[in-house]
Amino acid sequence: xxxxxxDRIQAFLAADSFAVVGASVDRSKYGNKxxxxxxxxxxxxxxxxxxxxxxxGLKAYPTLAALPAPVPAISVITPPAITEQVVRDAAAAGVQxxxxxxxxxxDAAIKxxxxxxxxxxxxxxxxxxxxxxxx
Length: 135
Prior knowledge:
By secondary structure, the protein is α/β, with parallel strands linked by helices.
């Protein structure tokens, strides 16, 4: 892709709704903080967590495919081996932008996302820093 990370971040943040894959009920975990960051900024966000009914007062969904409507952009906070499957699920669910938070990315996941035509942010800034998160 010829676009800069800054351009990809701007396109990502321009989306009207988001999902957090790896959303956690544990407020100390990044999967929870990223979800709360979207909430703090008044964004429409859906937690994806197969083991939770709700996260931070929002209905949780087991998979991206289970969402009531497709989302254009997702944040991923999962172990790298799981991120590779998330990429395939995201492409199948119509996601266009994927932000792999530090620690979630792998070379295989990034390559798969690019091959599937997704705009990828990985190996760079954390969404919490870019959007501005307060605990």
